[in-house]
Write a structure and sequence with these properties.
The structure is a single chain. It is built from eight helices and no strands. The protein is mainly α. The protein is globular and about 50 Å long.
């Protein structure tokens, strides 16, 4: 097997790879297979009703991840149970995820931030927590778009390119995330709307 994670991605360790459902041998095959699975998950959630589209519920966030990766990974939708190079300590994930959902719901209900900033703060928090073994970026971008759509806002374009493979666009995305780590969200908002 030849799986080489792009820079700033969660590396695929042997335990993670052993949970792969299809018989794939290269990173390119995995990227293509996951892309099809993510598309099916997006189609599902766009037709879903009720709580399935409420991304401010932890169960809905988990269900969304499960539908995005259920044909690829046995652990799809399950929270991370180990520490990785990205994200908070795995034992804090359930509490931090619930608190993030409550905070964002408060921000929505009280119009604390303009919509683009509110959505980007949600995205950044979800990426920072990094709740799943893999697929966190794609999951958090779709969850952010669902938050916007649920409240009558246009979804982000995310530079209208795939951010999975190494590229200058992916580098721009991670540079914007690092700025957001320092509390500066303008670059990430600009990227999301580009």
């Amino acid at each position: 097997m030849n799986f080489v994670s792009p820079e700033c991605a969660t590396p695929l360790d042997p335990d993670t790879i052993s949970s792969l459902i299809p018989n794939l041998t290269t990173q390119a095959e995995l990227n293509e297979y996951e892309a099809r699975n993510v598309l099916l998950g997006e189609r599902w959630v766009m037709r879903a009703r009720g709580d399935n589209r409420d991304v401010l519920l932890t169960a809905s966030l988990r269900r969304l991840h499960q539908r995005m990766f259920n044909l690829t990974w046995r652990w799809a939708g399950q929270l991370r149970t180990t520490n990785t190079n990205i994200g908070i300590d795995w034992q804090r994930i359930p509490i931090q995820l619930e608190q993030m959902c409550r905070n964002v719901r408060y921000h929505v209900d009280n119009q604390v931030y303009p919509w683009d900033e509110l959505a980007i703060r949600f995205h950044h928090s979800l990426v920072y927590i990094h709740p799943f073994p893999n697929g966190n970026g794609r999951h958090s971008r779709l969850a952010t778009d669902l938050l916007l759509l649920r409240h009558g806002q246009p979804r982000f374009t995310w530079a209208s390119q795939s951010l999975v493979a190494h590229s200058s666009v992916r580098e721009d995305y991670f540079a914007a995330l690092r700025e957001a780590d320092a509390g500066r969200f303008e670059q990430l908002i600009e990227f999301a709307r580009s």
